[in-house]
Request: fold
Amino acid sequence: MTERTTSAPPTDAATTVPPRTEPPANAPTPVAAETAPLYGQRLSRRVTIRDLQLAKRRGDRWPMLTSYDMYSAEIFDEAGVPVLLVGDSAANNVYGYEDTIPVTVDELLPLARAVVRATRRALVVGDLPFGSYQLGPDQALVTSIRFMKEAGVQAVKLEGGHRVVPAVRQIVEAGIPVMAHVGFTPQSVHAFGGYRVQGRGEAAERVREEALALQEAGAFAVVLEMVPATVARDVTAALTIPTIGIGAGPGCDAQVLVWQDMAGLRAGRLPRFVKTYADLRGELARAARAFAEEVGQGRYPGPEHSYE
Ligand code: KIV
Reply:
């Protein structure tokens, strides 16, 4: 054992090695965050709205998923999904409501908190539920502040066009990034007379004007839901902020799906725009049946699952 001969603290290896000017020969070529594609980039920090702006300039496409709990958030974060939305779609995908209208801020905040805690990299967006911003810019700002302070999200989302422009402006001026949402906006399902494509024919111009007004108010991105693909493509070309499509065709900068739809957890008829990438419902049902059968037959727990 080497004895210390002075009272000086042991030198830290990092301080004795001269700063490296050249990377070691076998080091992977560093990719500047400015130039690397957003999806698949393994940032050691959270994605920011600036990363999304740079992606738009480069023409990168990126995915967004909803998430409402720790495990899905952790998995999507590790899979490299750069933006996670704690959607008010938790209403019908977590809480069992018929549509998104009944869900409250108090029901969404704990879900958003879990998603933030479980992620290191994804930008987490909290969705303002129906009734939490419709009274005007002040109510919208108060609700957004609750999402920032009580859940730790990095941005908020709200639905609507010209009607919400003053609210978007006020939230953005307070330093909170806002994602907008036009086209079919589920909180207005009754006003639309059901789940119907918006922006067909002459209404296309309105979608475009709303998106431009929201960009001008400071929104950092805009969701285009259930609008014709040609309209979404034109809006995407007209905007300098990213568009995120759901049922809006391939011409958007990004695409979003509700994760339970994407992974095949939801039963019943799915909207036309959903593509299912797994059969989680079938897999979970198989696991539950196997567990039930083994318990019934006395095969679980075995000796390897029991304590001496
Ligand atoms: O709440 C939600 O899930 C959404 C997305 C589908 C855009 O608003």
